Amino acid sequence: MYKSFxxxxxxxxxxxxxxxLITFLAKNLVLAEYGMYQLIAYFSFIAISIYGLEYxxxxxxxxxxxxxxxxxxxxxxSFLITLLPLTFIIHIIAIKFLLPNELLTIKIVxxxxxxxxxxxFNQEVYxxxxxxxxxxxxxxLLVAKSTLFLILVVSYYYFFKEINxxxxxxxxxxxxxxxxxxxxxxxxKYIIKWSDIKLKILSLLELKKIFKILIPxxxxxxxxxxxxxxxxxxxEHLYGSEAVGVYSFLFAISTLVYVFVVSGFYLVYLPEFIxxxxxxxxxxxxxxxxxxxxxIISSAxxxxxxxxFIDILLNLIGKSALVDHLNILYILLIxxxxxxxxxxxxxxxxxxxxxxxxxxxxxxxxxxxxxxNLIFLKLYNIKGAAIALLLTYILHFIIxxxxxxxxxxxxxxxxx
Length: 416
Hints:
Elements lengths: L1 H27 L2 H22 L2 H10 L4 H30 L7 H26 L3 H26 L4 H27 L12 H36 L1 H39 L4 H34 L2 H5 L1 H26 L3 H26 L2 H33 L1
């Protein structure tokens, strides 16, 4: 109970920090610059997956089982080091093709590369802390990540009375430099000692063995990232950076509902669900019900708060373009609530090792979303992206629930 309460508090701090950062930047940057900043932030999520190659989807489950953690972590690090030259090249190519030309200066590209690497490192250490049940340490790292950048940006504006995209990126670089140091300290203090690290370059045979496990996760990564970010880059291409700024602000506000649930409940409950599944424990039913109730209630409460306070927030920001597109926020909030509900059947499929099913579901809804965006963006402008996302997540919930019900029927037979 204490860990759940602690997680809610720390996620609340994290969500508040992100909310304040989004609001501050939307108010003090012109919408075109804000759109550029958000494209960089979205690209960072893509880069994390490029470097990680979704290894954590396999590695987390192994760590949660508590079997030879040092060896599992060494395998992960060796896998990362072996493929780093390839993933780095892919990262550079992605920067070239996904980001607007205005961002392709040497300084900005170097900052983006460092931020992406630091963010990836932080994500992996955070996940490992969760998996080995160092929940408090993981929470502190999460709070540091959420607040460092906000404190630096607000402090800079307080002293110099102005801010622009160039200054934001420099402060972002500084924040991630500090975060990298804290993450490195957490790795060696709580996860693995420096003396226990045994690095090696993996052979082709070893890589093939790992990729055989990861292939469903890799396809899942492509589908998921495409689903999450295609609309923003499509909007930039069709309607420009200011349109991205408007949509990204409303999207960022609404996605906090999803971020809160994933980091506050999904990742916290995941190790326990994995263990209960391994033990074939009947307690998994009551835990799943509790998880479901927390997901539904928190989604509803947080969404209601956003609807209640959004007018005050937009008046504070003072940008009419955001007010004119307020209906997009309501559509997106419903979409992310439905996505949260999909986590309930989704976590069941994951702990049961049904990666291929998850991959196929995500592939179907990615193609569905792609088609809807291509149609709706031209018919309804940026509102079309929100409608496409809502319809996509409804389909996702229906298919995932259907597959999870079938899986639950099998589980009941095994656990009796």
